[in-house]
TrEMBL record:
Top-level taxon of origin: Eukaryota
Similarity section: Belongs to the HAD-like hydrolase superfamily.
GO-annotated cellular components: nucleolus
Name of the featured protein: Haloacid dehalogenase-like hydrolase domain-containing protein 3
NCBIfam families: DREG-2, HAD-SF-IA-v1, HAD-SF-IA-v3
Record InterPro entries: HAD-like_hydrolase_domain, HAD-like_sf, HAD-SF_hydro_IA, HAD-SF_hydro_IA_REG-2-like, HAD-SF_hydro_IA_REG-2-like_cap, HAD_sf
Residues making up the signal peptide according to the UniProt record: none
Length: 251
């Protein structure tokens, strides 16, 4: 006899899915530098940050935890590298700016809840769905979510720092499923990264929804995702879940 599989757990990415930075990183860095008497262009800092972040992530994956770093040290090094690449080699002048940025990035005021996020999370819970966070983030995430009033929606917040593996590593998704005690077939993940969120969660047998921004999707990516798994905004999630639910028949 056929019966319906009910989705029971939704796991969520955070950055650029539920929250975004109020200001571009370069602006944030330039403002803090100015407050410490250093004048550096925001665009230069933005470019330098992307390069420093890429290099640091490559050399020290997941905050370098397995190489003896802490996530705090990892971030302070990213800031110092950013300023170095932007033409400020004086590490001593940059140290207090790095401390300040580290503090400020965990303040709720640095972040903005994306449109529709709160209502969607509420709507999901109203349907009896359990919600959890699976995010490539450090330990500060819990406090950020609490400060923005979103923490209460989630059973747990699993960061890559706590799990020990970043998305798309299957182990972080397995850990979330273990914590929730649900089978991947009745869990779905929502995120904005094709590689980390969509492919990562699919690889462990979960359903996936990709939040897409206003920019056109890479045609190769678009071609590989069923239309009903693309979310032009978070308000598309509940109708998409209804369609998915309707199509899930277990024989
Ligand atoms: Mg994201």
């Amino acid at each position: 006899m056929a019966h319906r599989l009910q989705i029971r757990l939704l796991t969520w990415d955070v950055k650029d899915t539920l929250l975004r930075l109020r200001q571009p990183v370069g602006e944030e860095y330039a403002t803090k530098a100015r407050a410490h008497g250093l004048e550096v262009e925001a665009a230069t800092l933005g470019r330098a940050f992307r390069q420093a972040y890429r290099t640091q992530s490559h050399s020290f994956p997941n905050y370098g935890l397995s190489q003896g770093l802490t996530s705090r040290r990892w971030w302070l090094d990213v800031v110092s590298q950013t300023f170095h690449l932007a033409g400020v080699p004086d590490a001593q002048a940059v140290a207090p700016i790095a401390e300040q940025l580290y503090e400020d990035f965990c303040k709720p005021g640095t972040w903005q809840v994306l449109e529709g996020a709160e209502a969607t999370l509420r709507g999901c819970r109203k349907r009896g769905l359990r919600l959890a966070v699976v995010s490539n983030f450090d330990q500060r995430l819990e406090g950020i979510l609490r400060g923005l009033g979103l923490r209460e929606h989630f059973d747990f917040v699993l960061t890559s720092e706590a799990a020990g593996w970043p998305k798309p590593d299957p182990r972080i998704f397995h850990e979330a499923l273990r914590l929730a005690r649900v089978d991947p077939a009745v869990a779905a993940h929502i995120g904005d990264s094709y590689h980390c969120d969509y492919k990562g969660s699919q690889a462990v047998g979960m359903r996936s929804f990709l939040v897409v921004g206003p920019e056109p999707l890479d045609p190769a990516v678009k071609g590989s995702i069923p239309q009903e798994c693309l979310l032009p905004s978070l308000s598309h999630l509940l109708p998409a879940l209804d369609r998915l639910q309707g199509s899930l028949l277990e024989l």
